[in-house]
Structure formats: structure tokens, C-alpha cells
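Hi,

I'm pasting everything inline rather than attaching a file, because the server keeps stripping attachments. The sequence lines come first, and each chain or strand is labelled.
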Amino acid sequence: MNMQQTKTVQQLMATMGERARAAAHSLGLASTEQKNKALLAMATALYDNSSTILAGNELDLEAAGEAGATPAFIDRLKLDTARINAIGQGLEMIAGLPDPVGQVMDAWERPNGLKIERVRTPLGVIGVIFESRPNVTADAGGLCLKAGNAAILRTGSDALRSATAIHDCLAEGLTAAGLPEHAIQLVPVKDRDAVGEMLRGLHGNLDVIVPRGGKSLVGRVQDEARVPVFAHLEGLVHVYIHAAADLQKALAIVRNSKLRRTGICGAAESLLVDKKIAAEAGRQLVAMLLDAGCEVRGDAAICAMDPRVEQATTEDWTTEYLDAIISAKVVDGLADAIAHIEQFGSHHTDCIVTEDEAAAATFLREVDSAIVLHNASTQFADGGEFGFGAEIGIATGRMHARGPVGVEQLTSFKYRVHGNGQVRP
Amino acid sequence: MNMQQTKTVQQLMATMGERARAAAHSLGLASTEQKNKALLAMATALYDNSSTILAGNELDLEAAGEAGATPAFIDRLKLDTARINAIGQGLEMIAGLPDPVGQVMDAWERPNGLKIERVRTPLGVIGVIFESRPNVTADAGGLCLKAGNAAILRTGSDALRSATAIHDCLAEGLTAAGLPEHAIQLVPVKDRDAVGEMLRGLHGNLDVIVPRGGKSLVGRVQDEARVPVFAHLEGLVHVYIHAAADLQKALAIVRNSKLRRTGICGAAESLLVDKKIAAEAGRQLVAMLLDAGCEVRGDAAICAMDPRVEQATTEDWTTEYLDAIISAKVVDGLADAIAHIEQFGSHHTDCIVTEDEAAAATFLREVDSAIVLHNASTQFADGGEFGFGAEIGIATGRMHARGPVGVEQLTSFKYRVHGNGQVRP
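And the predicted assembly:
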């Protein structure tokens, strides 16, 4: 790329930032009805224009195929009528969520009669950087809109034609509801410098970045972004079977946590078995996993349980397999389990299985992860399962948003103070 | 400075970061009783060691005097028995505040029986960079501790001996309560590179920075920090006198907002008078200010009200005087007032004076500032006045913390999920 093109991308992104900021201002004052009208009109436009979207997707698929993309990549990129309908239904579901903007979070009165309210406001402009999954265009754009935020969307370049066709439908919905057309913008070029510009914050016109994709994308964004990032790098999720665990619950929870879907961030990657119950329950858990087709990589004590277990290396304790593989270890009690999780975990989601309420309470208090569970599958780590309706992602940072990030956490707040002439002595 | 010294400061700061992170871990699990015991023991240590603190302060004052410090600088630096007692009382007051850590912010049950709780957790490690005001050592350290956070404090170098003597008392209190001694650390060197290391985040061991001081300090921190910052650059605070204002309230609120204390961030810097009432109410407001010794810099319409008014320049609309000076302008109704505030304000604190509830509601909704007031003095922009007990500062950012930042906003949260064997279908 030559200097001229770089300059053009910089200018393009700067202009997108300015337009987003201007759109965010009016979007912050838009009524719930207007935002919902836009979301529903977007869904209608998606249904009405599915053939155009599929035509764009077909070109993306052809190019990706020629470039030698993997079947998994092609599957994520591929749209069909059912998938387009699901995207539209997602927007309709977001329309049905409560509007967080203007919600009174807290209200109190001071002795001098001042009434203070803390109310939710939009965050401003949200940048979403995602891989070649066309559906994220609508999911992320819709969630940002519902919370009164402008969005700047950057798709993986292999999905640009698909995303553009979907974005056209979003723009149609915005216009139909009388909302600013720049409320949701899609970066229209494949140039990777566009990402760099977003990471630098578009001259103060980008308030937060949400990366949606694999570890390399998220890692780059976390390392380089000069604006806050809502993300998790990986889900090194543990299930700890405590000495007082109910074996049937343990078997069901471990199986579900690991194997229901192996490719999601809430899938378990490490099994910790208490020494006191290793001999019997541990053996059954390991056999169940192996019988179900899961590879088990264990420490010496786990290896001794079953000849099919492979020896774990140090690396296994920090590997997010996203596959039918689990690392397993015998731990010496609750404190040892917590220490292992603190040392090797990623502060995403961790679970204890026990009938001992005191042990559960200690685990839930001391394990410093965004989500800590007692006697339930780690695959509940999901905004929908939390009742948030939808999520833009799961965050492991400690600032502002943590755990599943739904519309509510895409907001900020301000204080409204109602007086009757009070002055300060 | 030579290379060797730079390396030493880097090592020093890196070690402080590691120690803070380790301390934060146990501090996050400390009981309320233990934290309060530490705070009260700190206060006792301050009272008991006041002569040592005053001796350190005397040396700081001498050195500052020899270096030609201004009387205002000397006044901020100076301690006496009354000021030391006030610092101790501040710590006792923090001990009396509710402990935010472990508070259940929200709790709900899912249709599948999962019980989900959102509970407050500490943020982690908080860096506080302040000017030569020794009291901030205890105020900031105490607030961070109460919220379960480790603190790394960096004082203005002219106050290092005073701050060190106060910090010794804090360390004594921590030890007395059995809390880690590195829960509150003071950067022990004057070297400015220490600030640079903090701005770069101490290798992930600093979660947020709070700058306490003037615009140049805050500006540098906001520009250069690679970690989140809780701060406001300036308070360009407006009072808008609407057409339906009660004149007596307007006179009292404007006088108090501007003149009660002119040097605080909640002091009004701009008066906006509605055109409809400019002739009579405007004239009285301007005369009141001038008679009270306040310089008024007005637009043409304000200048015409009184010969003592000076002509405002464009710069006046964006100047935080922190002095008995106010800029004043006649605006053409509510929308014009809001537009002026959006264009020139700093999103800190803004006020409308009116008896028209609908106009007030519009103002409170549309003005995008951390604090928006109706019929009350802008000098209520203060954590104590909000009922927070104490604040570490006022933030105008939109992420995480906004407005007065008390102990509650020095926390993060996590989700606790209680199940009974649930797995995901």
C-alpha cells in the first residue's frame, strides 16, 4: 500500500468517527419506541432482501474457497435462509428487551431535601471488530442501538460483501424510524489500517472496543487499543469436584460442561478432583469422559486411574482446547483447588460441585472470576442463559463490564439532582 | 539521570506493582471488621505521631520556601495539629462507611432454578498520583483500602517527607489489623520516571489511576496513561436561568454556585440568562455578582446591562477561572442553553433554575454531564454532599465511574450462580 492509500484510510476512519459521535448525540435522546421501530424495520428489511444478502454471501464464499479457507471458516461465513431468519429474529428479540437508557438505578434524598437520582445513559460510540461471521453485523449493531450507542463495525474482510448487504438492511431500518443513518456504520474497506485507526480511538470518537473472535484477534486488540476493551482472551474454565460432591451431579455437570459444545468459551478445560474422593468418584468421572470420546490429560494420580489417560504437561493447565480434550488433576482440598484456579485460570468461569454449602460459599467468594458457579454446568456462562436476552460478548476485565455483556452494560450513567433552591452553607 | 538510575526506578516500580497485586489478593478477602480496625488504628497512629509528621512537614515547608513556592502552594503543603486531626477524622469516617465488597447488587432466579447474584468485588490495584497535599496520602489510601483495593500512592515531590510520615502511620494501622503491609504503598523516590512507570501500568499490576491535582497533572495522566483513569480535566460549570425561574432562587443559587468557594471544580464558571427575562432578572443577577466583588465577562447583551461588565472573548466560554470571575451570556431559550453547554462545557456539572418542571426535565435529560441539577447550587457536586461519605475525586469519563467517585465506584463485580445440578440442554 502506498502513502496515499494510508492517508485515505485515516481520513475515512476519522470521518466515520465524527459521524458516529454526531449520531450518538441524537441517538442518546431517541425514544424507546423509535429504537424498537428501527430494530423491527431492520428485521423486515433482512427478510425482504435475503436474496441480495445471499448473493453477496455467495461471492464471499467463492473467494474464500479459492483462497483455501478451512471448512470451519466457510461454515462460519456461510449464510442461508434459515440463518438470515435467525439474524432477523435476533433483532426482534433485542427490540423486546427493556430499554436501559433513562432507567433509574438508584434514588435517594439528602437531609437538605435534595433528591438525587442515578440514571442510565448511553456509553457513546462502540467499535466492534469481528471475524468473518456476517451475523455479528446485525447482532452487535442491534445491541449497541438498543442501548443508545452509535456503532462502528469492522468485519473480517472475507465477509465484507455479506456484511455490507446486511448493513444495508440496518441502514434501511434506521431511516424508516427517523434515526440518523450513521448510527450504525460498517467500515467499507478491507484495509487492515482501519483496525489500527480504531485501536487508536478515532481521535476521541470511540469510547470502547468489543473484539469478537479468536484469541489472536482479541490479544491484538487488548495489547494495542488505546481505548477500553470489553473482551475475554480465553476461557480456561475449571470444574472442581469437592470431597462432598454428589457423584451423579458431578458426572452430569462435568459431561455437560466439557462436551455439550466444546468450542465455546464457557466449555470446561480443566477438571480438578478432590483427593478424598479421587479413588472412586475420580475414577468414574475419568471413565465417563473417556467413554464419551473425550481425551483426558492427567497428572500422575489421574493417569493411575485409567490406562487411556495421557500424561499432562505444564502447558495443559493453561491450554484452552476448545475441543474434546480435558486436563485433569487431583487436588488436596478446597484451598488447593482455589490456588490452582488462581494460578492457571483466566478469570472467566469456574465451578464447584459439592453438597457442602460452606465449601461452596468459600469457593464462590474466593475464586476471582467473572462467573463462579455452584452445582451447575459452566456452559451457562452466556448472556441468554443469564436472562440478559443477548450479549455482545463475555468480559473478564474488571472495569465497567464483566461477565456476559448485555445492553445494560453498554450504558454509562449520570446523576440528576432535584432541588428547591438549596445552596451550600 | 543516568541509565543506572532509570533502571533502578523501573525495578522499584515493578516490585511495588507485584507487591500491590499480592496484597490486593488477600485484601479482597479481608473482613469489614479487619479493614475498619486498620482504618481506626491508622487514625490513632496519626494522632500519636503528630509531632513526627509535623517535623517532616517542617522540612518540606523549608525546602519549598527556599525554592520560591507560592503562598497558595505553601498553604496546601502545610500541616498543623488541626489538619492532622482532620486527616485522622477522615479515616474514622471512612471506617464508618458501609463496606461495598460482597454487597449483592442484584439477584434473580432463572426459569431453570439457577439463582444468579451480582456481587461487588474490589477493583484490584489503584494508583493515585497527587500534588503536594499531604492529606491525600491518608484520604486516598483509606478509601482504596475500604473498597478492598491495594493502593500505590505517588505524592508531589515537595511533600515527600510529610507523606512518608503519614504513610508510616497507615502502615502501622495495617500491621495492627493483620493486613498486608503492601496494601498501601507510597512511592519513596522523587524521580519523575516513577510517574511514567505508573502511566504504563506496572506490567498489568495497576488497574486504574486517579490523578488528584490541577489541569496540567490531569491532562498529562489522561493523555499518557495506558490504564483507565478516573478524573475530570476541568469543571466548566454552567448555571442557566430559564424564563420561568424564581428570581430569589436564581440570585441565591448563582451567588452560591460562583462565590461560596471559587477554587473548587463545582464552582460555576458561566451564567446563561434566558432572553425572555434578561431585561429585569438578568440585570439583577449581574448587579448582584458585581456588587459581591465578582468580575463579569459578558456578551453584548450582558455588557449592556451594567457598565462594570467586561466584554467576553471566545476563550471565556471555555475558561475555568477558579476565581471570582464569571462569563455570562444571554441565550435564546432552553435549546440554545443546552447547545451552548454541549459546545463549551466539560460534562462535569450543570444547573437549570426554573419553576417549569417540563423545562427542567428536558435540561436534566439532554445535558450530557456527570451531574445535572435543578434549582440547587452547583457546589453540591461533591461526594460528601451526595451522601457518599467521601470521594477520591470527580470523574467526567463515561466508563465505570462518573461524578463523585466514592468507595462504591472503587469496586468491580462478579456473578455468583447457585445451582442444584443444572446442565444445559
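The first helix of chain B runs from residue 3 to 27.

If the labels don't parse on your end, tell me and I'll reformat.
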